Amino acid sequence: MAIAYTETLKNVGLSQTEADLYVACTALGEAPASVIARKTGMNRSTTYVGLKAMEKRGLVGSTETNGTQLFYAKEPDLLLKQAERSVEDLRKTLPDLRALSGRVSSKQPRVQYYPGIEGVKTVLEDTLTAKETILTFGDADLVVANLKEYYSDYIARRTAAGVRTQAILNEGNVGKKFFEASREELREVRLVPKTYAMPNEIKIYDGKVAIMSHKSPYGGILIHDGAMYETQRSIFAMAWEFAGR
Predict the structure, then answer these.
(1) Residue 22 half-sphere exposure, CB side, CA atoms within 13 Å?
(2) 214 with 150, same domain?
(3) Pairing relationship of beta strands 187-192 and 165-170 according to DSSP bridges
(4) Domain for residue 98, yes or no?
(5) H or E element in which residue 135 lies
(6) Is the CB of residue 76 less than 8 Å from the CB of residue 26?
(7) For residue 24, is pLDDT > 60?
(8) How far is the C-alpha of 113 from the C-alpha of 119, rounded, in Å?
(9) Is the pLDDT of residue 2 over 80?
(10) Residue 89 predicted with pLDDT over 70
């Protein structure tokens, strides 16, 4: 269980040492550095230096009893507030970062690769910034089987953001559900037989082409290239016309 705690703490910005110390302090209550060192398996000097650094960050506090300095963990809610502030700071910075990325990508083609299922999600998150209708190829059954609740949440956030999509999907249970829910989910769908296999999901938008592999090895690719974007739009237009027959 302690490992799960430390991994969560690392995910919100603590180092391995800080996470171990915070969990130990939380479990011990008020304790001297020597006791915390034994609890974590660290040497005393590393423990003391780490605790003092965390004290400056407001993660732990200290008090003195009978001439001995005792350290204790601050309330866990403080970590949540710090993480929320960091997210808010990042959100404020995103427009400038996107503008900077746009200036770079306008000069030369650029390809970004993100491995694994988390990589697929990273690329999907970028599509939520789309200013134009997203053109999509994919097998909805395969996508939802891999991403489960995340994809439902993604659709809800895309819809809330007013981002429309035009999709060519393989026939299947999920594909038909997407077709039936087209209006409320800002989606226009045309279905094609499973014989036209689409293990990769492709999304075309804003001068970019996003490709996500929903079969092992999973991963996502984000391509910033005007020529490839235009080519993929033309391919989609031809496929859309065919799918409408």
Answers:
(1) 28
(2) yes
(3) parallel
(4) no
(5) strand 134-138
(6) yes
(7) yes
(8) 8
(9) no
(10) yes
